[in-house]
Design a protein that fits this description.
Blueprint: E1 2-3, H1 5-24, H2 28-51, E2 55-56
Antiparallel strand pairs: 1-2
Helix pairs in contact: 1-2
Length: 67
């Protein structure tokens, strides 16, 4: 199943909320990691908008496309 721009925007919002919760709890490493994922999702949303394409969802059970 491919993901559209809105999916990535929603994921970015969720990851920021999670990062804020971890930050408030003093769990800085986890907050930093999730904030990075939020940035990645936001960038993918920008790419999806610019290209007007769906982005394939990577499933963990699949082999990595670069392997």
């Amino acid at each position: 199943m491919a993901m559209v721009r809105r999916d990535f925007q929603d994921l970015a919002t969720v990851r920021i909320r999670e990062a804020e919760s971890l930050l408030a709890a003093g769990l800085f490493d986890g907050a930093y990691y999730l904030a990075g994922l939020a940035v990645e999702c936001a960038l993918k949303a920008c790419i999806a908008k610019a290209t007007q394409q769906r982005i394939p969802r990577f499933e963990p059970h699949q082999s990595a496309p670069y392997a």
